[in-house]
Amino acid sequence: MSTLAQPPDRGRVRRLAGAVAGAVVRPGPGSLPTRGGSLLARYRPELLWALFALANYVAMVAFESWETIPFHFIWISLTLLYGFRVWPTRPMLMILGAVMALTAESISLDAFNGTQLWGELFEVPLMAAMFLAMAWHAQRRVEAQLVAERQAGELTSMLERHDRFIHDASHELRTPVTIARGHLELLRAGDPGSAELAVALDELGRMDAIIERLLLLATAGHPDFLQISQVEVEPFLEELFMRWSEVARRSWRLGPLPDGALAVDPERIRAALDALLENAVKYSQEGDAIELRARRVGPAEIVIEVADEGCGIPREALARIFERFGRADAARARSTGGVGLGLAIVDAIAKRHGGRCTVQSTGRGAVFALHLPATPVYGPAGEKGIPGWVLPAGG
Ligand SMILES: Nc1ncnc2c1ncn2[C@@H]1O[C@H](COP(=O)(O)OP(=O)(O)OP(=O)(O)O)[C@@H](O)[C@H]1O
Ligand SMILES: [Mg+2]
User: Fold this and answer.
1) Quick check: CB of 341 below 6 Å from ligand 1?
2) Higher pLDDT, 371 or 376
3) Is the CB of residue 300 less than 8 Å from the CB of residue 353?
4) What percentage of the chain's residues is helix, strand, coil (to nearest 5)?
5) Segment 351-379 mean pLDDT
């Protein structure tokens, strides 16, 4: 990552500083924008400040014995303006020189006339020094901001390349795996009892699952990853529950479910809940209880929980099980056929919906909670609305 540690390109920093401030001062008159309106709009803060400074300069000349007040107004307003606009160095020095000359001239005139002490003139370089200290800090801030922006951009593009690589590699692996599986299945048709063929097919099935899940993870950042539609919470979870309760012999329980609808991608949320229920079955035994339930939490969240009475998760493994290929116990996962991508997918789906997935390992088993942000909606205007629960669109 040596590129990240490089010092900022000063020229670019300066140009960007101008852009950040919205006030790039061009090197020559030929490159000045021609449309007066846009120029006025761009430099409106500077123009307002110039008027304010001019008024204060007039006040300095008119009220000689009170000139310390407009004098300080000019310097304070210049410092404040620079804090927001951060001009490039040359125009900043030119403006500083002009303000120094004007304020020094006014004080000198008064000193000649005997209405001010000559010592007052020291105020000018002192105020200029204060301004330069502030300018130095402001420029450092802009430079740091630009470096941070550049690093964020590099990180984003690196992550995009990383995801694209995973996507392409998984895609390329798909075809040979499918062909190999076809050949092995033909062989098995001629020798159904072969243990070697069964192991090979099993491993290919595992590779298939890895490829499919990696492809899904690699596309999780795409803008069209979610197809949002309105989903009634109760029938949606009931249907899921019925399907799973027929698959595995467990003590299935359907807990309380809230009314209302969620604006989510039903396919993705179903895939996430399938992964949680699959784990609950995989890491429990016949007769153990598995409960599916949901509740509202406050006005802006709905939580869907899958609780099981299985083997539970050691405390030290809780943090890593949401990582790709993160397993609580590698040996156990291998024996139960786990790839270690199910929870990473749940996590990605939850995050794309603006939510998150959490886990608690209870004394007996584990509880996984899918938190989805929701905002209440009401029926059509004029009707007595029934509160529903709709997620913000997008994700
Ligand atoms: N309900 C659960 N009870 C106990 N351990 C669990 C439970 N759910 C997940 N785990 C642990 O978390 C790990 C990660 O789960 P994850 O679903 O990501 O992977 P997996 O189940 O091993 O493989 P797969 O990719 O096939 O889902 C599991 O290997 C397991 O150790
Ligand atoms: Mg799993």
Assistant:
1) yes
2) 371
3) no
4) 60, 10, 25
5) 85
Mean pLDDT of the 50-65 span: 93
Atom nearest to 365 CA in ligand 1: 3
Write down the mean pLDDT value for the chain: 85
Q: Is a pLDDT exceeding 90 seen at residue 328?
A: no
| Residue 187 structure tokens | 């062989």
- Contact between 250 and 287 under an 8 Å Cβ cutoff? The reply is yes
pLDDT at 5 over 50: no
Name the residue with the closest Cα to ligand 1, atom 21. 338
The ligand 1 atom at the shortest distance from the C-alpha of residue 345 is 18
CB 318 within 8 A of CB 326: no
| CA gap 361, 54 in Å, rounded | 70
C-beta separation of 387 from 378 below 8 A: yes
**Distance from the Cα of residue 165 to its chain's centroid:** 22
Query: In this model, does residue 332 exceed pLDDT 70?
Result: no
Q: Across residues 345-370, what is the average pLDDT?
A: 94
Q: Name the maximum alpha-carbon separation found in the chain.
A: 117
- In 20-86 the beta strands, taken as DSSP E runs, fall at none
Q: How far apart are CA 163 and CA 256, in angstroms?
A: 39
Between the CA of 155 and the centroid of ligand 2 the distance, in Å, is 29
Fill in the amino acid letter for 73: F
Q: How far is the CA of 320 from the centre of ligand 1 (A)?
A: 11
Map residue 115 onto helix, strand or coil: coil
Residue 292: Cβ-neighbour burial (10 angstroms; 0-12, 13-18, 19+): buried
Binning pLDDT at 50, 70 and 90, where does residue 27 land?
very low
Do 257 and 288 meet the contact criterion of CB atoms below 8 Å apart? no
Instruction: Measure CA of the first residue to CA of the last residue in the chain; give whole Å.
Output: 30
CA distances to 167, 244, 313 from 290, rounded to whole Å, are 34, 10, 15
Q: How far apart are CA 50 and CA 73, in angstroms?
A: 12
**Ligand closest to CA 323:** 1
Task: Tell me the domain boundaries of the chain.
Answer: 1-219, 224-390
Comparing CA positions, the residue from 169, 12, 8, 167 lying closest to residue 88 is: 12
Q: Sign of the CA dihedral 248, 308, 335, 344?
A: positive
- The predicted model scores a pTM of 0.67
Topology adopted by domain 224-390: Heat Shock Protein 90 (3.30.565)
pLDDT of residue 192 exceeding 70: yes
Indicate which residue's Cα is closest to atom 13 of ligand 1. Answer: 327
